[in-house]
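Budget justification aside, the reviewers requested a transparent look at the raw inputs and outputs of the sequence design task funded under Objective 1. We therefore reproduce one unedited record. The lines immediately below are the C-alpha cells for a 284-residue chain.
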C-alpha cells in the first residue's frame, strides 16, 4: 500500500473552501488520489476528506501542518492530517461471546484491517489462549456487580499503559462509565446487536421476536455517556419471518454484527468518519 497523508476537515460552509484546500496542496506538489466532500444544506456545514500521496509533497508533514494552520484559521476549520503508515493502537474488549473478537483477530492477522493490536481486555478468561497464540498481551479485568469503579480504574490504567488510540467493544457486555466515555470521546466503537434506536439494552433479539419484526440488524456506533445513543457509523439488516425462532435470529444477527463492526472500524481507521454533533458523515 502506497504511503499517504489523509486530510480531514469540517467547517461552516462558504464559497472557496475546496479551492483554498486544493490550491494549498497543489502549491506543495501534492498529488490528491482521493477527494470526498459534503455540504450539509440544513446546518450549512462543510465536510471534506482528501488523500495525498506522501512522496509527492515537497515539504515534510510537520511543515504541511504548520502552514495549513493559516488556511484552517481563515475558514474556522476543525481539521487533522494523518500519516497512513502510522498505525493506530487498537484495544479489543470482549466478554464471553467470541464471534466479533475472533473476526477482528482474523482480519488483523491477515492484514485486511491495518492497526497495531497492543492488547485484548476482557472481564472473563475466555480469550486468553487465542490471545497468547497470537502473541498478544491478555488483560483479564473482572468487573464485580457490586462495585465496578476499581475495575474501570484498572481499565483506564491499561489504556494509558498501552497508549491506546481506539477502543473496540466487540460484544463487551459492560457499560463504560461516563468519565471514561468523555475521556475517549470519538475513540470508543461499539457493536450493538440491534438496529438502533429500536430495542436498546439487553436481549434485543428477544424483543424483536416478541414484536414479530421482519428485519433485524446491527449498529456500529461511537460510545457516549448516554447508553446506545452515540453517533452511528454503520448499520445493516437481514430479513427474517415468522418461521425464524429467537435462536435463528441470534445466529443471523451474529453474522451481521461481525460485518458491521469490521466495516465501521475500517471506516474509522481510514479517517472516513467525521463526527458532527450526534451524527456522522461517512465517506465510505
Amino acid at each position: 500500500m502506497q504511503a499517504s497523508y489523509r486530510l480531514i476537515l469540517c467547517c461552516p460552509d462558504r464559497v472557496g473552501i475546496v479551492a483554498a484546500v486544493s490550491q494549498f496542496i497543489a502549491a506543495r506538489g501534492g498529488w490528491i488520489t482521493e477527494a470526498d466532500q459534503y455540504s450539509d444544506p440544513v446546518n450549512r456545514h462543510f465536510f471534506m476528506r482528501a488523500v495525498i500521496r506522501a512522496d509527492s509533497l515537497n515539504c515534510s508533514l510537520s511543515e504541511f501542518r504548520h502552514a495549513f494552520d493559516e488556511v484552517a484559521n481563515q475558514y474556522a476549520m476543525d481539521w487533522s492530517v494523518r500519516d497512513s503508515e502510522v498505525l493506530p493502537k487498537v484495544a479489543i474488549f470482549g466478554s464471553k461471546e467470541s464471534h466479533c473478537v475472533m473476526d477482528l483477530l482474523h482480519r488483523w492477522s491477515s492484514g485486511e484491517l491495518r492497526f497495531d493490536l497492543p492488547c485484548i481486555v476482557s472481564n472473563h478468561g475466555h480469550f486468553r489462549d487465542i490471545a497468547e497464540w497470537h502473541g498478544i498481551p491478555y488483560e483479564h479485568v473482572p468487573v464485580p456487580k457490586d462495585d465496578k469503579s476499581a475495575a474501570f480504574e484498572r481499565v483506564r490504567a491499561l489504556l494509558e499503559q498501552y497508549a491506546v488510540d481506539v477502543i473496540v467493544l466487540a460484544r463487551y457486555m459492560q457499560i463504560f462509565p461516563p468519565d471514561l466515555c468523555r475521556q475517549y470521546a470519538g475513540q470508543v466503537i461499539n457493536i450493538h446487536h440491534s438496529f438502533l434506536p429500536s430495542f436498546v439494552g439487553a436481549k434485543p433479539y428477544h424483543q424483536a421476536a416478541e414484536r414479530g419484526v421482519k428485519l433485524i440488524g446491527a449498529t456500529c456506533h461511537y460510545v457516549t455517556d448516554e447508553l446506545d445513543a452515540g453517533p452511528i457509523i454503520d448499520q445493516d439488516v437481514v430479513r427474517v419471518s415468522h418461521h425464524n425462532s429467537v435462536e435463528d435470529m441470534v445466529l443471523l444477527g451474529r453474522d451481521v454484527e461481525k460485518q458491521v463492526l469490521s466495516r465501521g472500524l475500517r471506516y474509522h481507521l481510514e479517517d472516513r468518519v467525521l463526527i458532527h454533533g450526534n451524527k456522522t458523515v461517512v465517506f465510505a
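The chain has a mean pLDDT of 93. The chain has two domains: 4-83, 89-282. Computational costs for records of this kind are itemized in the attached budget.
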